[in-house]
């Protein structure tokens, strides 16, 4: 697959060959859904908590005598049916995270990249950096690509100055080519990928597939 490489001014510079094994796959909606749900579950804090009748502060004394009052029998004021009493089957702190197969995760990311490439949402941009670290300098580059909504920039490395420049742009997020997130990538209205990052993706996923196969053979 050939894609046009754009300058930071929005001009066409040259074309680059992208690996069809990464950018030319058919769309697999199921694996995308599983990958996104996995990321959202792993981000949940699971800190919600309620107190049951054993944890509610109060006396254990019987509030009134057993018989003769015409009222229901009460053991204590901490009963779940009383106002201020304990909660029955309420939430407790828990871990919502779980793992999915590595191959499924990689397939989801490659499928999303293919989806973006086929829909022309993906644009390859020449390698750039924002040496000043100022938001206005990065905003000027984004304006050349009409990026004024949910946008993802895929970097070739962990460029701190670019991230610093984009920290004040609420609809902008950054991903490194070797640490992609399915949720951000899928919901990005525009994906700007640096040229080196696009070239590295094919090598990275190819090496990753080989290492997994070797691990599985060793395990057998």
Quick recap of the structure?
The protein has 220 residues and is α/β, with parallel strands linked by helices. The chain is 37% helix and 14% strand.
Structure characterization notes:
It is a single chain. This protein has 2 domains: 2-28 and 101-219, Ribosomal Protein L4, Chain: A, CATH 3.40.1370.10; 45-95, no CATH class. The chain is 37% helix and 14% strand. It has helices at residues 20-23, 29-43, 102-118, 135-143, 160-165, 182-187, 195-219, and strands at residues 2-6, 12-17, 122-125, 151-155, 172-176, 190-194. It has a 6-stranded mixed sheet with strand order 2-1-3-6-4-5. Helix 2 crosses helix 3 (102-118). The radius of gyration is 27 Å and the shape is elongated. 21% of the residues are buried.
Backbone CA Rg: 27 Å
CATH C-level class of the largest domain is Alpha Beta
Report the CATH superfamily of the largest domain.
Ribosomal protein L4/L1
Cα separation of the termini: 37 Å
Mean pLDDT: 86
* SS strand fraction: 5-15%
